[in-house]
Amino acid sequence: MTRIVECVPNFSEGRRKKVVDAIADTARAVEGVRVLDVEMDATHNRAVITFVGEPEKVKVAAFACAAKAVELIDLNQHVGEHPRVGAVDVIPFVPISEVTMSDCVQLARSLGEEISAQLNVPVYLYEAAATRPERQNLAKVRKGQFEGLREEIRTNPERAPDFGPSELHPTAGAVVIGAREPLIAYNINLGTGDLSIAKNIAKAVREKDGGLKHVKALGFETDRENVVQVSMNLVNFRETPVHVVFDAVRSHADEYGVPIVGSEVVGLIPEDALVDSAEHYLKIEGFSRGQILEYKLRE
Amino acid sequence: MTRIVECVPNFSEGRRKKVVDAIADTARAVEGVRVLDVEMDATHNRAVITFVGEPEKVKVAAFACAAKAVELIDLNQHVGEHPRVGAVDVIPFVPISEVTMSDCVQLARSLGEEISAQLNVPVYLYEAAATRPERQNLAKVRKGQFEGLREEIRTNPERAPDFGPSELHPTAGAVVIGAREPLIAYNINLGTGDLSIAKNIAKAVREKDGGLKHVKALGFETDRENVVQVSMNLVNFRETPVHVVFDAVRSHADEYGVPIVGSEVVGLIPEDALVDSAEHYLKIEGFSRGQILEYKLRE
Question: Among A73, A51, A48, which Cα is nearest to A60's?
């Protein structure tokens, strides 16, 4: 099997398609790298590019994207709803196959050194690549945003970058690089028109309010009558599997006497997340991934 | 993605390792074919070889195995518990990826013509490749075994082969070739020492006694105290999914007030069977296989 890393860089540009295309094209130009997805959001004024390949090639593509974004994006001109500190705002590496989290941490650090040295942009490491516990949390690294960090990075030793100058790049700000598990966008639909139930269950299951670790959740209305939604991001399905989240939501819904009418996976989901859930519900013991026919074929 | 067919020929030799190795080696010698498994059973005096590859290459390997078995196995010397009509007893083709059942039926027929013409062995087609409804059932095709079929094939038009002479090969008998879905060996363990409960549930869920289609089931003791087992073969997981079988066994177990303590998959299971179960239990709607990260990577 091939070693595969996913990289999902976020850029502070969600309106000028030409700029986003130019950035994505630098990744496409790297042999062995496949761009799976390019998403632009005008309200957030932000773009997310997803590409995969062998670790070293993905790093080359990530550097190329960063260089192009530093060239084309001026954060002083940037207004949008999403918090950001950089033109290349965040670069997470995600282990997919035959690659460990620790490989991705190495990749993040090595890309960080390269970007700071060659593009003169300060670099912060976050999540699994963080060098200080508080930097595991991206929101804390991004606190104050581009405008606020400009002053803090010079004066507050707590905000010193991991690599590069203690001064923001005048137009590109800083970049936050890290390693994390794949994120799963998973929504559960409840058979009720009562939005407060979705909001209460979201609050009960999300980490922030003492619920399940690695779960972010909000309650929303939907465009279907008498259906509200618990909309979630599962940021570490290995530690908090999809079935644990589903069962927790179901158990709360049961208390309200409300049925689960269905669920949806938005975007991509790792195969392992589904196989883990099948193993759980079917109570399969002593199972090894090598028993999956297709895994054996790919060996 | 590559087109992949699995072939799982059964040979009437489970004691002489040299013979089985020689047969498996003919498949290994075909470029592009991978031998995944070779199993010998002395009691049954039978060997099962599993290999995969592109359809045409798998057919070449299947023919090579058959030719070697016809050369090395004399059914007149064969004694074993398992019913058989041929040195190469059964050759099923199984669609794995980018291949339809109808492709496998074509493969079975084309191999049948080739074996009958070149090895002078009569060929019967079974399951999805059958040319008569009663031949969908392998047990009926094999009725009377080598010894009984020798007479019947000459005298009874109902037993005429699909290809080749109306006379058994003197040492190799006949060969039964077909196409079928992958078989899943799936056992569910019940938390009771009462064997009759496992036997009753097996009877309730198996097709033969009016239970679930495509399910074969027996009740067994296990080597664990107070654990008995419903041991099953699921011969078409697309029509009767694993989760349907699990839920049926659970529902019967509930009636006896007996818990399911676990289950096991013996050997290989297709990925789709697990993904289908995850989708079912997590109530995922509108899901496409293209959302599985690894599928997207293989595209």
Answer: A51
